Structures
1.
Amino acid sequence: MDWLIEKIAELLANSKHAVVFTGAGISAESGIPTFRGKNGLWKRFDPEEVASIRGFMRNPKAFWNFARELILKTKAKPNAGHYAIAELEKMGIVKAVITQNIDMLHQKAGSKRVLELHGSLKFVDCLDCGKTYRWDDLVDRIKRGEVACDECGSLYLKPRIVFFGEALPKEVLSEAIEEAKRSDVFIVVGSSLQVYPAASIPFIAKDSGAKLVMINADPTDKDRLFDIVLHGKAGEVLPKIVDKVKEII
Protein backbone atom coordinates (compact mmCIF):
# COMPACT_ATOMS: atom_id res chain seq x y z
CA MET A 1 0.00 0.00 0.00
CA ASP A 2 2.87 2.41 0.78
CA TRP A 3 4.05 2.50 -2.82
CA LEU A 4 0.52 3.29 -3.99
CA ILE A 5 0.27 6.14 -1.49
CA GLU A 6 3.58 7.48 -2.78
CA LYS A 7 2.44 7.18 -6.40
CA ILE A 8 -0.80 9.05 -5.74
CA ALA A 9 1.08 11.72 -3.79
CA GLU A 10 3.47 12.19 -6.73
CA LEU A 11 0.55 12.62 -9.12
CA LEU A 12 -1.02 15.23 -6.85
CA ALA A 13 2.23 17.09 -6.19
CA ASN A 14 2.83 17.41 -9.94
CA SER A 15 -0.77 18.15 -10.91
CA LYS A 16 -2.08 21.49 -12.09
CA HIS A 17 -5.79 20.79 -11.64
CA ALA A 18 -6.69 17.90 -9.32
CA VAL A 19 -10.35 17.12 -8.63
CA VAL A 20 -11.81 14.80 -5.97
CA PHE A 21 -15.11 12.96 -6.43
CA THR A 22 -16.70 11.45 -3.30
CA GLY A 23 -19.49 9.01 -2.57
CA ALA A 24 -21.18 7.42 0.42
CA GLY A 25 -18.07 5.48 1.45
CA ILE A 26 -16.26 8.50 2.87
CA SER A 27 -19.30 9.51 4.94
CA ALA A 28 -19.78 5.94 6.18
CA GLU A 29 -16.57 6.45 8.15
CA SER A 30 -18.38 9.29 9.96
CA GLY A 31 -21.24 6.98 10.91
CA ILE A 32 -23.65 7.74 8.08
CA PRO A 33 -25.08 4.49 6.69
CA THR A 34 -24.47 3.67 3.03
CA PHE A 35 -27.37 2.90 0.72
CA ARG A 36 -26.06 -0.14 -1.11
CA GLY A 37 -24.05 -3.16 -0.09
CA LYS A 38 -24.42 -5.78 2.60
CA ASN A 39 -25.72 -3.46 5.32
CA GLY A 40 -27.05 -0.73 3.04
CA LEU A 41 -30.18 1.27 3.82
CA TRP A 42 -32.03 -0.18 0.86
CA LYS A 43 -31.96 -3.55 2.61
CA ARG A 44 -34.26 -1.98 5.24
CA PHE A 45 -36.20 0.63 3.28
CA ASP A 46 -37.91 0.65 -0.09
CA PRO A 47 -36.20 3.45 -2.07
CA GLU A 48 -39.26 3.83 -4.29
CA GLU A 49 -41.35 4.57 -1.21
CA VAL A 50 -38.98 6.82 0.77
CA ALA A 51 -36.58 8.35 -1.75
CA SER A 52 -38.31 8.72 -5.13
CA ILE A 53 -40.18 11.82 -6.23
CA ARG A 54 -43.22 9.70 -7.07
CA GLY A 55 -43.17 8.15 -3.61
CA PHE A 56 -42.76 11.56 -2.00
CA MET A 57 -45.68 13.08 -3.91
CA ARG A 58 -47.79 10.06 -3.02
CA ASN A 59 -46.88 10.03 0.67
CA PRO A 60 -44.45 12.68 2.00
CA LYS A 61 -44.74 11.25 5.52
CA ALA A 62 -42.86 8.14 4.39
CA PHE A 63 -39.80 10.25 3.62
CA TRP A 64 -40.01 12.13 6.92
CA ASN A 65 -40.33 8.88 8.86
CA PHE A 66 -37.22 7.70 7.04
CA ALA A 67 -35.49 10.99 7.89
CA ARG A 68 -36.42 10.74 11.55
CA GLU A 69 -35.33 7.13 11.77
CA LEU A 70 -31.96 7.62 10.14
CA ILE A 71 -30.76 11.14 9.49
CA LEU A 72 -31.54 12.49 12.93
CA LYS A 73 -29.98 9.54 14.70
CA THR A 74 -26.66 10.30 13.09
CA LYS A 75 -24.70 13.16 14.64
CA ALA A 76 -22.05 12.89 12.00
CA LYS A 77 -18.86 14.94 11.97
CA PRO A 78 -16.18 15.13 9.29
CA ASN A 79 -13.55 12.44 9.52
CA ALA A 80 -9.84 12.50 8.71
CA GLY A 81 -10.61 11.84 5.04
CA HIS A 82 -12.75 14.97 4.75
CA TYR A 83 -10.09 17.05 6.50
CA ALA A 84 -7.33 15.67 4.26
CA ILE A 85 -9.26 16.69 1.12
CA ALA A 86 -9.82 20.17 2.59
CA GLU A 87 -6.08 20.39 3.34
CA LEU A 88 -5.23 19.54 -0.27
CA GLU A 89 -7.55 22.31 -1.41
CA LYS A 90 -5.94 24.73 1.05
CA MET A 91 -2.55 23.78 -0.43
CA GLY A 92 -3.86 24.77 -3.86
CA ILE A 93 -3.71 21.23 -5.25
CA VAL A 94 -7.37 20.18 -5.25
CA LYS A 95 -9.40 22.69 -7.23
CA ALA A 96 -12.87 21.23 -6.61
CA VAL A 97 -14.73 18.51 -4.73
CA ILE A 98 -17.59 16.85 -6.58
CA THR A 99 -19.79 14.89 -4.19
CA GLN A 100 -22.78 12.59 -4.36
CA ASN A 101 -23.33 13.10 -0.63
CA ILE A 102 -25.96 15.40 0.88
CA ASP A 103 -24.45 15.67 4.38
CA MET A 104 -22.32 18.84 3.94
CA LEU A 105 -19.39 17.21 5.75
CA HIS A 106 -16.91 18.53 3.19
CA GLN A 107 -17.92 22.10 3.97
CA LYS A 108 -17.77 21.41 7.69
CA ALA A 109 -14.21 20.12 7.20
CA GLY A 110 -13.22 23.33 5.45
CA SER A 111 -13.58 22.60 1.73
CA LYS A 112 -14.62 25.75 -0.14
CA ARG A 113 -15.47 24.61 -3.66
CA VAL A 114 -17.94 21.76 -3.27
CA LEU A 115 -20.27 20.74 -6.09
CA GLU A 116 -23.21 18.83 -4.61
CA LEU A 117 -24.62 16.67 -7.41
CA HIS A 118 -27.52 15.42 -5.30
CA GLY A 119 -28.19 18.61 -3.35
CA SER A 120 -28.02 18.93 0.42
CA LEU A 121 -30.17 19.06 3.51
CA LYS A 122 -29.47 22.72 4.21
CA PHE A 123 -32.84 24.04 3.01
CA VAL A 124 -36.40 22.70 2.81
CA ASP A 125 -39.10 24.20 0.56
CA CYS A 126 -42.87 24.02 0.75
CA LEU A 127 -43.98 22.83 -2.66
CA ASP A 128 -47.39 24.46 -2.24
CA CYS A 129 -46.72 28.01 -1.02
CA GLY A 130 -42.98 28.29 -1.62
CA LYS A 131 -41.92 29.08 1.95
CA THR A 132 -38.30 28.09 2.65
CA TYR A 133 -37.03 26.63 5.91
CA ARG A 134 -33.58 25.83 7.19
CA TRP A 135 -33.24 22.12 7.92
CA ASP A 136 -31.81 22.84 11.36
CA ASP A 137 -34.94 24.82 12.27
CA LEU A 138 -37.13 21.79 11.50
CA VAL A 139 -35.21 19.22 13.54
CA ASP A 140 -37.51 19.32 16.58
CA ARG A 141 -40.59 18.97 14.37
CA ILE A 142 -39.02 16.06 12.48
CA LYS A 143 -38.29 14.31 15.77
CA ARG A 144 -41.95 14.71 16.77
CA GLY A 145 -43.18 13.58 13.36
CA GLU A 146 -45.00 16.89 12.86
CA VAL A 147 -43.60 18.20 9.60
CA ALA A 148 -46.07 20.61 7.98
CA CYS A 149 -45.80 24.11 6.60
CA ASP A 150 -46.73 26.69 9.23
CA GLU A 151 -47.68 29.10 6.43
CA CYS A 152 -50.20 26.99 4.50
CA GLY A 153 -50.41 23.69 6.38
CA SER A 154 -49.07 21.62 3.47
CA LEU A 155 -47.33 18.30 4.19
CA TYR A 156 -45.25 18.71 1.04
CA LEU A 157 -42.08 20.09 2.59
CA LYS A 158 -39.24 18.89 0.39
CA PRO A 159 -35.53 19.18 1.19
CA ARG A 160 -33.31 20.38 -1.63
CA ILE A 161 -32.00 16.94 -2.44
CA VAL A 162 -32.37 14.98 -5.66
CA PHE A 163 -34.90 12.19 -5.29
CA PHE A 164 -34.92 9.16 -7.58
CA GLY A 165 -36.80 10.20 -10.70
CA GLU A 166 -35.53 13.79 -10.60
CA ALA A 167 -32.84 15.30 -12.80
CA LEU A 168 -29.58 16.51 -11.31
CA PRO A 169 -29.36 20.31 -11.01
CA LYS A 170 -28.21 21.45 -14.46
CA GLU A 171 -25.85 24.17 -13.30
CA VAL A 172 -24.05 21.95 -10.79
CA LEU A 173 -23.81 19.06 -13.26
CA SER A 174 -22.43 21.39 -15.92
CA GLU A 175 -19.81 22.75 -13.48
CA ALA A 176 -18.84 19.22 -12.45
CA ILE A 177 -18.37 18.17 -16.07
CA GLU A 178 -16.22 21.24 -16.74
CA GLU A 179 -14.07 20.46 -13.70
CA ALA A 180 -13.66 16.88 -14.94
CA LYS A 181 -12.59 18.10 -18.38
CA ARG A 182 -10.05 20.51 -16.87
CA SER A 183 -8.57 17.99 -14.43
CA ASP A 184 -5.24 16.27 -14.92
CA VAL A 185 -5.69 14.08 -11.82
CA PHE A 186 -9.17 12.86 -10.87
CA ILE A 187 -9.55 10.92 -7.60
CA VAL A 188 -12.68 8.94 -6.73
CA VAL A 189 -13.10 8.34 -2.99
CA GLY A 190 -15.71 6.05 -1.49
CA SER A 191 -17.94 5.49 -4.50
CA SER A 192 -18.74 2.30 -6.40
CA LEU A 193 -19.98 4.49 -9.31
CA GLN A 194 -23.38 2.86 -9.63
CA VAL A 195 -25.62 5.93 -9.88
CA TYR A 196 -25.80 7.75 -13.20
CA PRO A 197 -25.27 10.33 -14.57
CA ALA A 198 -22.89 11.10 -11.66
CA ALA A 199 -20.96 7.86 -12.25
CA SER A 200 -20.01 8.96 -15.76
CA ILE A 201 -18.09 12.05 -14.60
CA PRO A 202 -14.76 10.30 -13.78
CA PHE A 203 -14.68 8.87 -17.30
CA ILE A 204 -15.26 12.29 -18.81
CA ALA A 205 -12.06 13.24 -16.95
CA LYS A 206 -10.26 10.20 -18.34
CA ASP A 207 -11.38 10.95 -21.89
CA SER A 208 -9.94 14.45 -21.41
CA GLY A 209 -6.55 13.05 -20.44
CA ALA A 210 -6.71 12.91 -16.63
CA LYS A 211 -5.08 10.18 -14.57
CA LEU A 212 -7.83 8.30 -12.72
CA VAL A 213 -7.34 7.16 -9.11
CA MET A 214 -9.78 5.02 -7.12
CA ILE A 215 -9.66 4.96 -3.31
CA ASN A 216 -12.34 2.71 -1.89
CA ALA A 217 -12.67 0.29 1.00
CA ASP A 218 -13.85 -2.54 -1.27
CA PRO A 219 -13.21 -3.55 -4.89
CA THR A 220 -15.67 -2.22 -7.49
CA ASP A 221 -16.54 -3.43 -10.96
CA LYS A 222 -15.04 -0.19 -12.33
CA ASP A 223 -11.55 -0.71 -10.82
CA ARG A 224 -10.12 -2.01 -14.09
CA LEU A 225 -10.79 1.37 -15.73
CA PHE A 226 -8.56 3.28 -13.29
CA ASP A 227 -4.86 4.02 -13.52
CA ILE A 228 -4.31 3.49 -9.79
CA VAL A 229 -6.58 1.58 -7.39
CA LEU A 230 -6.02 1.65 -3.64
CA HIS A 231 -8.32 -0.37 -1.38
CA GLY A 232 -8.47 1.21 2.05
CA LYS A 233 -10.46 3.56 4.25
CA ALA A 234 -10.37 7.21 3.24
CA GLY A 235 -9.78 8.35 6.81
CA GLU A 236 -6.64 6.23 7.01
CA VAL A 237 -5.28 6.60 3.48
CA LEU A 238 -5.87 10.25 2.60
CA PRO A 239 -3.95 11.78 5.56
CA LYS A 240 -0.94 9.63 4.60
CA ILE A 241 -1.20 10.90 1.03
CA VAL A 242 -1.28 14.50 2.28
CA ASP A 243 1.80 13.91 4.43
CA LYS A 244 3.63 12.43 1.46
CA VAL A 245 2.61 15.34 -0.79
CA LYS A 246 4.08 17.74 1.77
CA GLU A 247 7.36 15.80 1.71
CA ILE A 248 7.51 16.00 -2.08
CA ILE A 249 6.73 19.68 -2.49
2.
Amino acid sequence: MAENVVARRGVSIALACRAFGVSETCYRYSPLLSDENEQIADLLVGLTTA
Protein backbone atom coordinates (compact mmCIF):
# COMPACT_ATOMS: atom_id res chain seq x y z
CA MET A 1 0.00 0.00 0.00
CA ALA A 2 2.82 2.36 0.82
CA GLU A 3 4.33 1.79 -2.63
CA ASN A 4 1.02 2.68 -4.22
CA VAL A 5 0.76 5.96 -2.31
CA VAL A 6 4.34 6.91 -3.16
CA ALA A 7 3.82 6.14 -6.85
CA ARG A 8 0.37 7.66 -7.34
CA ARG A 9 0.30 10.54 -4.90
CA GLY A 10 3.92 11.60 -4.80
CA VAL A 11 4.11 11.18 -1.04
CA SER A 12 7.59 10.71 0.42
CA ILE A 13 8.65 7.20 1.31
CA ALA A 14 9.21 8.20 4.93
CA LEU A 15 5.70 9.64 5.27
CA ALA A 16 4.04 6.69 3.54
CA CYS A 17 5.90 4.22 5.75
CA ARG A 18 4.90 6.07 8.92
CA ALA A 19 1.27 6.26 7.78
CA PHE A 20 1.07 2.51 7.14
CA GLY A 21 3.29 1.45 10.04
CA VAL A 22 5.99 -0.05 7.82
CA SER A 23 9.70 0.42 8.36
CA GLU A 24 11.62 1.99 5.50
CA THR A 25 13.90 -1.05 5.55
CA CYS A 26 10.93 -3.31 4.79
CA TYR A 27 9.74 -0.90 2.11
CA ARG A 28 13.09 -0.97 0.34
CA TYR A 29 13.74 -4.72 0.81
CA SER A 30 14.20 -6.72 -2.36
CA PRO A 31 14.67 -10.47 -1.95
CA LEU A 32 17.64 -12.11 -3.61
CA LEU A 33 16.69 -15.30 -5.38
CA SER A 34 19.25 -18.00 -5.95
CA ASP A 35 19.06 -20.59 -8.70
CA GLU A 36 18.56 -23.30 -6.10
CA ASN A 37 15.59 -21.48 -4.58
CA GLU A 38 14.04 -21.09 -8.02
CA GLN A 39 14.40 -24.82 -8.69
CA ILE A 40 12.82 -25.68 -5.35
CA ALA A 41 9.95 -23.27 -5.99
CA ASP A 42 9.34 -24.83 -9.41
CA LEU A 43 9.27 -28.31 -7.88
CA LEU A 44 6.81 -27.22 -5.20
CA VAL A 45 4.53 -25.58 -7.75
CA GLY A 46 4.68 -28.77 -9.80
CA LEU A 47 3.61 -30.82 -6.79
CA THR A 48 0.66 -28.58 -6.01
CA THR A 49 -0.67 -28.45 -9.58
CA ALA A 50 -0.46 -32.19 -10.18
